[in-house]
Structure formats: structure tokens, C-alpha cells
Amino acid sequence: MTPNQTLVNEGKDMTHSRRALGCLLLAGLLVGTSPGSMAIANAGSQDQSLGIQSTVSLPSHAQGNPPPWSGKAFRQGVVAVANPYAAEAGAQILEDGGNAVDAAVAIAYALNVVEPQSAGIGGGGFMMIHLAETGETVAIDSRERAPAGATPDMFVGVPNPSLQGVAVGVPGMVRGTEMALERYGNLSLTRTLQPAIKLADAGFAATPRYSEASCSSRARNSPETEAYFCPGGVPPAVGSLVQNKPLAETFRLIATNGADCFYVYMPEKGCDIAKGIVEGQRFNRPQAPNGKGGSMTFADLENYQATLRTPVESTYRGYKIRAMSSPSSGGLTVTQMLKMLERLPIGDESQGFGFGSTKTVNVMVDAMRLAFADRSVWMGDSDFVPEPSRGLLHPDYVALRGAEIVPGARITPNPTPGDPRPFEDPDAEAGTLIPTAEPVTGPGETTTHFSVIDKWGNLVSYTNTIESGHGIGVFAGYRGTAASFRNFGFLLNNELTDFNLTPTVNPYTGGPGFNDVQPGKRPRSSMTPTLILTPDGKPLVAFGSPGGSTIINSVFNVALNLIDHKMTIQDAIDAPRVSVTSAASSVSLENGFPQGTVDGLRGLGYTVSTGADIGSVQAVVVDPKTGKQYGGADSRREGTVIGLPRPRSS
Question: Which biological processes are named by the entry's GO terms (predicted)?
Fold first, then answer.
């Protein structure tokens, strides 16, 4: 049986066991999701409103019953989003004639309103687009850039730099969404902004996740954000009305004047957003000594441009894998891990490689350790450094690295980075590893991801972020007369702490670290929007995850679940995950693994922590034979699937 035949076997009974489910539709790619989603976004909901009329009442599937869209096929489009309101915004755009790109843009702006701690126009991301008509997959890079005044040592001696203006990169989302619509959309930026404007202006009912995050220390880092997110030291009650009228006005300015209104200071047009960004990133955390603001100027904003990228492409057991390329490390790292395990019979229970077994988790962990060792020194913004992307995935290099993985044993001592340069260029000579300190980057534990398919078969996998929860905890804005504050309602990112926080040395070249700060450079990212396609290039699934560096491992886990363990899309998302984000042998496991696996890993010498919360995968799926569409979302957040057409009311 070919890999594609395995993925498209049709299932007959959705109540079968997990083993039977593994043989369902697209190797399980076809079942949808999320115990945590809200009633507004049920596939069968008739409430198509946004704003204060929406409800946060939990539907039955949130109490342990199957989600209403699980296994349900659609024809007119599907959205899978980490928040119900944003899912509704995307679904409405699809219903109004928009394509997957239009819906993705609407979702991204809506998430700025309802999931502001994770993403928004103060940050950036990667939008991967698969075009049904041509079969081409492209990626729009709207990653933040370092300002012209940035230096490799700018974080040295700065306490908690991720909470200060020095961490703010030039935001890219607005330029990126503008590029996406101009090149691939059906609708205007003005039209796609309307759902987000309505949500910000009329308000929405606070969801449990919104309320839970609202009084974090980051949300309270400045007086304005504390007053908005945690008024009186108390988070908004679940179900209470949340409005952001300054953000609604900001969106209206962009809708009226285009992206230039965000990036160019034009007070004669009322476009003063750029002033709010420049002034806001000067925040030097006055409540702590030795604070440091950023160096961003109006010129840095004016000069920002989004970039069109070609995704990393590889194969795994016959399937094509396309994932985000530089400045993300995600595509290279995920595909390198997959290729290192391809020689092993993952999924074969008779050989001890069933899901969650000690042997399976053991080899997954060591693949992560090897790939993250390489990532630490060889991956960065390839516009600035000679990232050896072909060498890292060269079959001989992957075989050399993967040979260290021995089932039933732990790689010891911890793996060191390899040298892929001779596999990149046959004339290059291998270098000698010199002792260097391991690079240190800042936090990156939030972000959001969503996936969309439209009725024409176009797909979008979009990961968007402001880095840590609530970014630096500061709104874009500036002081006016009488100490008034002109607030633009969106948070500024702390993306530059994804660079190495101190200058480093590449242990093979002896030169500066590939992820050291440089003016205009984009910091290395872990965001990994991904597509799995048939051997002949027909799309099967678009997915991705938030979660800092664990994003890479969430995508890796789900890819193995789908391809090797033959799970349905919902099982693949719901299954417990394992993560290691360095060469060390400290393993994080979500709850749900057998105790025998935990004990087995410890017996091999790993340090194992349980109870982790790793990622939040949202996915859409298409059956290439029938054209039927499916969705899956993650209960680790408020994952929501809406499929079209919606059922008619009786």
C-alpha cells in the first residue's frame, strides 16, 4: 500500500477504538477537535454574530463529549483557530466570498482583540500559503527586524530585558497581511478588518483563557496595561464585557489609509501610530534600576518590508513535508528530526515502537537533542548568515547524525553540534569544534497558530506572535498634553530577545554566532507552519502550534502521530506530547504517558518531568480523492473548528 493510500482509507464507524480510528480518513487526518472551544464557534451553531451578543457558555463537548465537528466533512471551507471569536471572524469572511488568505487576515486581526497576550499588530509571524490552482506553496515572512541602532551587546547588563523597550523589534504583521492580500487575496484590507473592528469596538465576553492570563506580571508591567488587563488588581470575570476602543480606532486608521498609516508618521492624515510605536519602545521599566529603552526610529518603521520565502521541503516515508524556512529554525529542525528517525519502524507495536512506548519516546527525544544541538549554532537569518540549510538535510549528514540514536540507550555525553558545511559544499572542509558557551535566548512561551482551507482548496497555515505573554507589557502610545496618553490599544513585542542575549562564537567558524544581534536582522524563530502533501504534491493537512521552542516538537509529535501511528487528526492533536529543546537530557512529558514509559526513560538516565503543557495545534485537512474538508483544534487552549456550509436551522 502506498503512503497516500494509507492516508486516505475511508472509515465507517466513528465510535471505533483508537486502533480503528487510526485507519480512518486520511490516516486520521479527518477528525476535528477541542474540548475547550466555545459555543459561538460550534460547526452547527446558528449564532453568526460578533461582539457582545456572543456567548462563552461551554458546549457539551467541553464536558467530555466529542466535539460536534469531529469526523464531519465540509465542502465550502474550514477554519481551525485557538479562539472561538477569531474562528467566527474567519468563517464569516469565507461565507462572504473571501478565500483562505482573506480569512486568515481577518482571523489574525481578530486575535489581536481576543487573544492580545499572544499576537497582534505589534508583532509578526509567518503565513504559509498553498495555492490550489498552481500547486505552489509560498511563505510570507513578517518577522520583526532589529532596528538600525541595535548592537550584539545591547542586552548585556540589562535586567529582565524581555520586559523593556530594548527588546522591541520593528513589527511586521501589518505589512505581511497587506502583502498577502495584494498577492493572493480576493478582498481588501478594509473588508477583512471589519470583524476585528467590531470585536474591539462593541466588545466580547471574556473567555476563561483571557481572564486567566490578564493579571500576569507581564500584563501589569506598565500602568496602562495594568489598568486595562487587571483593573483594580482583579482580572475580568469570565463572561464579562471586554472592549478595546483605542484598538478599534487604530484598525480604522489602517482600514482607511492602508499599511502606510501604521509605518509612516503622517499626522496630516491622522496617522500617528508610528509615533506611538517609537515612543512606546523607549520604555525603560522605571520600576527597576538599569532599565533600557529601544533605539527604533521612524526610519526603521518606514523601511520595514515583508519578504516572500520558499519553504523548506523534504520527504518522510513518501509524504512531502513543507515547513517554514529561515529566519525560522522550525522547518529545518522538524525535517531533520523526521529524517533521522525514518530508518526506524516507528508505529510498529510488534517491535516495541508503538505510540508512547519507552523505545519510541527514547528515539524521539534523542532526535530532538541532536537537532537542537545543530539549531543552536547553524540557524539564523539567512539574509545575514550562511545558514547551511542543504547540508543540514543532506541524506549523508542526516545518516551520520542519526546513527547516534540507538533504541534502548541514551546519547551520552550530551550531543554536540555537527558540521554540515562539507555536505552543503563538497569543497568545504570540516572544522574542529572549539569550546564555547551555549547561546542563551530569552523567553518565548506564547504565540498563536491557526489554519484555514477555502472552497477552492487554497490552504493557509499561519503562526503569529508578540513573543512572550503580553510582549513587554506596554501599549504603543505616547504622552500628550496634561500627561494624557494617546493609546493605540496594541501591545509591543519583545521579539528581539529571541536573539542571543550576549555575543557568542560559532564553535566551528570562530566568528560571531549566527543568531547574534545585527541591525536589520530578524531573530531566529521556532514558529513552524507546516504542510503535509501526498508524494505527487496534493495537500493533505496544514497545521502548526504556538509554544516558544516547543513549537518545533509539537509539530514533530503530530507529524509522527499522523504518519506513523495512523491517528485521526483529533487523536493526533489530543495525544500527549514529549519535548526537549536543547542537547541536554531533561525531558518534558505531558500527562497521559504510561508510568512504565516514565520509569523506562529515567532508567536510561533521562531527567523526566511530567505534567507539562506543550503547544496548541490547529489543523485543517483535505481528502485529495474526494475534496472533503475537515478540521481539528486543540483543547490545550480554546481551540475551535468551524466548517462550511453551516447546518441550516430546522
Answer: glutathione biosynthetic process; glutathione catabolic process
